[in-house]
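To illustrate this point, we now present one chain and its tokenised fold:
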Amino acid sequence: ICFFIIVAIIPLLLSSSMSYKETSMAIHNKISTYSQQLMNQISVNVDRELARLENDSIEIEFSSLVQDTLINIKNMTAWEVEKVQLTLQETLVKKFATLHDVSDVLIYTNSNEKIVAYGDKAGFALNFKKDFINDYLKRLDAAEGTPVWISSNEENEDRLVEFATSSEQMNKSNCILLGRAIVSLENSDIIGRLIIRTNERYFSNIYQGLDIGSGADIFLIDSDGIVVSSRNKDIPVTKPFKDRTLIKQILAYSSRGINTFDMDMGGETYLIAFNHVPTAEWFVVSTIPYSYLNSEATRIGQKLLWLSLICLLLSIILSYFFSSSVSLPLKSLIKAMNKVKKGNLDIELSDNSHDEIGEVVGNFKTMVSEIKVLMEDIKYKENQKKIAEIKTLQAQINPHFLSNALNTVKWLASAQKADSIETLVASIIQLLHVSMGKGGDFITVREELEYIKSYIKIQEYSYFDKFEVIFAVDEEILDYKILKFILQPIVENAIIHGIGQTNQKGLISVKAYKYDEELIFTITDNGAGMGKEKIENILKSNGRKSAFSGIGISNVNERIKLNFGDEYGLNIESMEGLYTSVEVRLPII
């Protein structure tokens, strides 16, 4: 017994120690890798929003209304300026009303006169304190049209009336400002400045619910070490990060292409992971304390130790009682199992004993008997399935025969100069070729658009010119490959459930372009629109299905995610009575 204990306990202790070290290292590596991936994804999402806002600012800057107003501002009356302000308000409310990130858009003339292009003009109007705005406007002039991103808070603002409601209080929270000098299209002179105010909460919500461990933090910091966005009140926004060496370390490691490092802060070691946000020259940073990393490894190590000790103790105790009474029945059982393993289910095994081994033997015999029944059942069902498949194949209509028949109808229509019928039948044939599986699961963007146009021609005859479809497609993407039947169910949904539910003539826009190594398709209609609940229902597996392809919107979304990952798929935006817009994001393959 002593020899058994020595032989058993030494390997057990060694294996437990090695398991603990390997587990600790594995946890560290996995959390490090996960943090890097998470920071990369957050930076992509943040950068996408920053780029969108910069594009909005360029659109405002070069609009003819803004250009003409700033060039002729000295010759305009107060009423004319007010009229321009109202026009800008009406234009930008359509752009930003459904987006909750932008709260104010201000335009400053070269004489620092303010035009409220978007936001409240009354008591809640945004007014920056003099020293702050003068300094910021100088920075914009010096940048000569390059965007300047800074963080700010209510200390730099001066509103005439205090906020009352919770939604108004949101505008008083920390914010991020995008500013740029407005350059004349005529002579490239600076004719004004544009400032867009966004709520900091909009960016912190991107990573608000992410959990990377106890005591860990995620925040955005600029290249000067100023915290731009944070979900932790102990890391205040618009203030330098508490440890000034953090940004120095980030810049140093970033220049070497390294995105993780260890750093001591406040008497504790942290795992730092970061990723660059190029649009605004920010960094998204995560700090994970080693106390959390070690606690996970220690907890697992303790469980391994206790489990090892329990197993050792049980093995010693049980060895006394079962060494002799178990060996013979087990050998018989093992012999029978080997027969079953080789495919022989006709076994003879005695189960006269009434102890646990006897119960195991009885259960094994029962299991073997059930396996025999199941195998026979499987054979029967497979035979029935083959019979059903044969019957189904016999009952199917040959699609090629149907295609040839339609070609005959097309020829007769052409011979009789029935152009409308010929066009309609040609469109049906085009769709039939796609549905027969020609070309596999993937087709080019050009082919996808061609069969959509064929489908639209058919629907135009059904709806008697009730709608018009506009295509805006970049030429460079026409030969890219995409999944078949991705766009048709969406276009059909726009026609039947969007335009078809209104009395007015409808307009459907189909846009396709390449953005950031992705293919973006946007299908927008000015039909009946829908609420949030209906959008969620459409994206469910039991949502609407296409009458032509039998593929539902949810099926399109699921096919994209199954083929390319959860970062791709559909995004639906809609307002009842106004519009519905479906964005399809695909990778370039």
About this structure: The chain is about 50% helix and 20% strand.
